[in-house]
């Protein structure tokens, strides 16, 4: 069955400051959506609110995932239900290796699915991790490094996609995964995402640039302006933006509100 | 690496797994409290030579005169009159587990000691209440002249060697509790490693308190002769009682020219034990000594293992790990005295505080004049798990020589909200996420331990973490 992430009239405030002002968006498994928009319009806020960041207060609206309203769910429950966020700025966890962390995360997912589960065996885990690292053309030594500690900007982004590949969620949100990647890395990461894409994965790519969308072809493109999805369309909308910027949309909006 | 796989096994385990107690099977106890008569009785029970009794009495005199230290943790509820200073658990010490009284043997079985001995140790000593009940060392080491005995047997069988060093590294005048230990000491190990002999596997001593209101005063003397090498490990547990118990050990180590030694403590006393310990190593020319000091349990711990770098090129290192959970005060750290040229030292301290727990780092670095080209580096990191927990640092640095390099860094961090959000967004529960940050925090230190101890350490830390939320 195809599951969906449905966002309805979502209002989110940080410290009484309303950032999201009624977002509507539906992402289904098997679909690729791009979310674009000027700096500071609330794209990362949406991503974090979807995962349940404690600082982001939901003042109205609902988030439905797999038919359930997940607003009251803890962050980890949402993750185990199949949501994933590749962070714009991943934090470092000193002293915890990538491998140790991923194994714990996999086991948390497995245990949620089956309380009797004894966890993935070490050989199985090694095989899995190597395969996923090869997919992203990562040096195997990376598995022993401390999570995000001293990673270059590009390495952090690649490590996020490695986590995505290993955890196999139903819906993945990629927050500016393309920024900070060199041209080769962008292609490798995009190829990685494409190989994961399919009927079981829905993707929401937050980006500023058309570039990544040349590799990962979106089915839908949305533009966020001032805490709302102001415009939605097909891939041509992204191309239009690349050429014309956001002003036409701002004008269109102010005309709409004036009229 | 052990943290993740261990987490799953932990659910449902009591917070302090070693809190069970067994019936009191002791064959002799001194009366509660301490006076000269009790000191005489202990010495008599042990059939000691006259000079030892005199030393004890002299130390007792000093102990009585000396005030309780007030510069550190609160010791006001430690009732020194409500303690048994000597409890003899069985008639004799054995070289075979089969000869250890059954109920005591079962305790050590539960603690996994005989099993560990089979797997990865060069020798084991086990102390129950005030006496060693078991001591054994691998035959091939014995053949090479390695001595690993209870301290009492050390005195009996090697009186000259014993007398040459006993009380010379830590004189009874050092501090009040060293004086107390020097008066009533009982149990502990006597270790001698002959020149050039390298003991590859660790020698382990295990300390267990069983009855309530007991004082344990083990005394250990380790002599590592020229070019030799040894790693000594001590572990300890006790039942959880509502009344307090008291542990006050003295550990003296001599590391001769070119020798290497390491002393590891994994202190896991129950939360009703006052743990006031003095540990010191004299490190001679081109020799090195390391203290790995992990304090996880106890109510109050005061412990500052020290290295006296006496010979040119000597090296000292102290790795200190403290976990202060609800109701605990860990006042730990280390001391290094540079008393010769080209000596180097390093102190790494990591502390974790949780709930009302309080971890204090207290360190002294002293560089004497003429200790030219000496180097020292001190790093203290504290991790606070919540708003109530507390950490302090008291670093004392006294340098009387210009030509030295000294570094000092200290940091305090909290488990960050962004770290928790990140880890939880991958499916880890809040508890698992905090555990993961903690095990990462101590990883640089745990990595230094032999694998078996690293696993044990992670396990103990995870147990301490349990129930850390709400
Ligand atoms: N924790 C916070 N505290 C206060 N303000 C915040 C916080 N997080 C976000 N904001 C504010 O919310 C607004 C939206 O920020 P957000 O990060 O969602 O933007 P964005 O669309 O992702 O921008 P960019 O394209 O630059 O990444 C900004 O004005 C930002 O300053
Ligand atoms: Mg953003």
What does this entry look like structurally?
The complex is a heterodimer of chains A (259) and B (470). Chain A is built from nine helices and ten strands. With 259 residues, chain A is α/β, with parallel strands linked by helices. Chain A has one domain: P-loop containing nucleotide triphosphate hydrolases (Rossmann fold). In chain A, a hairpin with a 2-residue loop joins strand 9 and strand 10. In chain A, helix 3 runs parallel beside helix 5 (153-167) and helix 5 (153-167) runs parallel beside helix 6 (183-196). In chain B, helix 2 (36-45) packs antiparallel against helix 3 (50-65), helix 7 packs across helix 8 and helix 10 (417-424) packs across helix 11 (430-446). Chain B has a domain at 21-303. In chain B, strand 3 and strand 4 (131-137) form a beta hairpin. Chain B contains twelve helices and 24 strands. Classes of the chains: A alpha/beta (259), B alpha/beta (470). The interface between A and B is medium-sized, with 38 and 30 residues. The complex binds adenosine-5'-triphosphate (ATP) and magnesium ion.
Question: According to CATH, what is the class of chain A?
Answer: Alpha Beta
Between the first and last Cα atoms of chain B, what is the distance in angstroms? 27 Å
Total count of domains of chain A: 1
Known CATH architecture of chain A: 3-Layer(aba) Sandwich
What characteristic shape of chain A results from the CA principal axes?
A: globular
- The overall average pLDDT of chain A, rounded, is 94
């Amino acid at each position: 069955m195809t599951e969906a992430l449905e966002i309805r009239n979502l209002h989110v405030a940080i410290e009484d400051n309303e950032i999201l002002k009624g977002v509507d968006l539906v992402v289904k498994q098997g679909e690729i959506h791009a979310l674009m928009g000027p700096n500071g319009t609330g794209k990362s806020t949406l991503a974090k609110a979807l995962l349940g960041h404690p600082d982001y207060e939901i003042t109205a609206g609902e988030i439905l995932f797999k038919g359930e309203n997940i607003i009251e769910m803890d962050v980890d429950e949402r993750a185990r239900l199949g949501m994933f966020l590749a962070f714009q700025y991943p934090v470092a966890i000193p002293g915890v290796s990538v491998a140790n962390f991923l194994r714990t995360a996999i086991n948390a997912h497995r245990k949620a699915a089956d309380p009797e589960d004894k966890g993935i065996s070490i050989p199985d885990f090694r095989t899995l991790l190597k395969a996923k690292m090869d997919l992203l053309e990562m040096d195997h030594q990376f598995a022993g490094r401390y999570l995000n500690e001293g990673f270059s900007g590009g390495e952090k982004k690649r490590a996020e996609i490695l986590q995505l590949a290993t955890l196999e969620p139903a819906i993945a949100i990629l927050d500016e995964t393309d920024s900070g990647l060199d041209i080769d890395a962008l292609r490798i990461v995009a190829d990685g995402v494409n190989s994961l894409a399919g009927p079981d994965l829905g993707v929401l790519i937050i980006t500023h640039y058309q570039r990544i969308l040349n590799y990962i072809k979106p089915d839908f493109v949305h533009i966020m302006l001032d805490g709302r999805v102001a415009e939605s369309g097909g891939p041509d909308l992204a191309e239009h933006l690349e050429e014309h910027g956001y002003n036409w949309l701002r004008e269109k909006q102010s005309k709409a509100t004036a009229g | 690496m052990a943290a993740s796989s261990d987490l799953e096994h932990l659910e449902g385990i009591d917070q302090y797994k070693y809190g069970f107690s067994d019936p009191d099977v002791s064959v002799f106890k001194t009366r509660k409290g301490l006076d000269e008569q009790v000191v005489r009785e202990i010495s008599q029970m042990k059939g000691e030579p006259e000079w030892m009794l005199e030393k004890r009495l002299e130390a007792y005199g000093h102990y009585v005169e000396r005030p309780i230290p007030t510069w550190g943790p609160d010791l006001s509820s430690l009732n020194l009159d409500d303690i048994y200073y000597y409890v003899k658990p069985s008639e004799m010490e054995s070289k075979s587990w089969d000869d250890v009284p059954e109920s005591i043997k079962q305790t050590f079985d539960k603690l996994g000691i005989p099993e560990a001995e089979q797997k990865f140790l060069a020798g084991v000593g086990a102390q129950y209440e005030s006496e060693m009940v078991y001591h054994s060392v691998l035959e091939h080491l014995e053949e090479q002249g390695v001595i690993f005995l209870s301290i009492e047997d050390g005195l009996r069988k090697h009186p000259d060697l014993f007398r040459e060093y006993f009380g010379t590294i830590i004189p009874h005048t050092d501090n009040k509790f060293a004086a107390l230990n020097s008066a009533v000491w009982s149990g502990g190990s006597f270790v001698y490693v002959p020149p050039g002999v390298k003991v590859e596997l660790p020698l382990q001593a295990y300390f267990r308190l069983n009855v309530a209101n007991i004082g344990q005063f083990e005394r250990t003397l380790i002599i590592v002769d020229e070019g030799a090498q040894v790693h000594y490990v001590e572990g300890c547990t006790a039942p959880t009682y509502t009344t307090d118990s008291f542990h006050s050990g003295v550990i003296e180590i001599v590391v001769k020219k070119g020798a290497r030694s390491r002393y590891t403590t994994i202190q896991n006393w129950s939360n009703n034990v006052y743990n006031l310990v003095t540990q010191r190593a004299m490190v001679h020319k081109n020799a090195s000594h390391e203290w790995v000091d992990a304090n996880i349990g106890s109510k109050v711990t005061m412990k500052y293992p020290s290295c006296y770098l006496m010979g040119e090129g000597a090296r000292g290192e102290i790795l200190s790990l403290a976990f202060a959970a609800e109701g605990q005060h860990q006042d730990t750290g280390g001391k290094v005295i540079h008393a010769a040229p080209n000596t180097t030292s390093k102190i790494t301290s990591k502390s974790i505080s949780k709930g009302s727990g309080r971890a204090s780092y207290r360190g002294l670095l002293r560089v004497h004049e003429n200790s030219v080209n000496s180097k020292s580096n001190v790093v203290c990191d504290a991790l606070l798990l919540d708003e109530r927990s507390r950490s302090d640092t008291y670093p004392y640095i006294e340098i009387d020589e210009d030509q030295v390099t000294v570094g000092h860094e200290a940091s305090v961090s909290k488990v960050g909200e962004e770290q928790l959000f990140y880890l939880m967004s991958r499916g880890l529960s809040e508890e698992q996420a905090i555990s993961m940050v903690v095990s990462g925090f101590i990883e640089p230190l745990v990595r230094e331990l032999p694998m078996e101890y690293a696993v044990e350490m992670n396990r103990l830390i995870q147990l301490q973490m349990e129930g850390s939320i709400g």
